[in-house]
Amino acid sequence: MHFIPEELDDYVVKHSENEPELLQQLGRETYQKILQPRMLSGHYQGRVLSIISKLVNPKNILEIGTYTGYSALCLAEGMQASGALHTIDINEELADFQRKYFNKSDHGNQIFQHIGDALEIIPTLNTIFDLVFIDADKENYPSYFNIVIDKLNPGGIILSDNVLWSGKILEDLKPDDMATKALLEYNILLKNDDRVETVVLPIRDGLTISRKVK
Ligand SMILES: C[S@@+](CC[C@H](N)C(=O)[O-])C[C@H]1O[C@@H](n2cnc3c(N)ncnc32)[C@H](O)[C@@H]1O
């Protein structure tokens, strides 16, 4: 979905950083071989994630929802040399694909894959994070926030993807639409929780930045 006119959107992309060659390859192979390739962050959002990570310069990063590893590689670009990126996905069939691209990058030995339900895995991680990217099943976004907030350093950042859900957050809620229901709840939760300050960016499908203030 384009939240700004397509022509302006094209201009924005054209005047932003180019997509690195490795990510172009990853994107192409995802579209050729993997189901639901539209889930991938892609060129422009990937450059946004990369520059935010470079600004934060996190030691430890948590990603919920690896898919084929595109956003993990973008986030890893800003990670400290001594840092680690933990990324979780419930779909075990994606692990070899992810690892192939992680190993081709400069950060392969700093990226740790976890396979399983993020709600079960996160409590087992003995790490305090500086940057968290939430991009898995929308129904669990409020739960992800609630378990991640205590594993985030003060000043740490949570990025949440798809918070505008193709504009569905403005439509009448259908009783069985649990994803939109959870995102509506999530956007209010972030706005009202005084442990974070939050700004919603109308980038792609909506990307929220929340900074832990206490
Ligand atoms: C939108 S994709 C992630 C895209 C990726 N972050 C990127 O930008 O390239 C969402 C991923 O979340 C995973 N997922 C869904 N439910 C999950 C859960 N409960 N725990 C962990 N991963 C989950 C899916 O298997 C899928 O690969």
From TrEMBL:
Signal peptide start-end: none
Database matches in Gene3D superfamilies: Vaccinia Virus protein VP39
InterPro entries named in the record: Cation-dep_OMT, SAM-dependent_MTases_sf, SAM_O-MeTrfase
Keywords carried by this UniProt record: Methyltransferase, S-adenosyl-L-methionine, Transferase
One Pfam match: Methyltransf_3
Protein's name according to its UniProt entry: O-methyltransferase
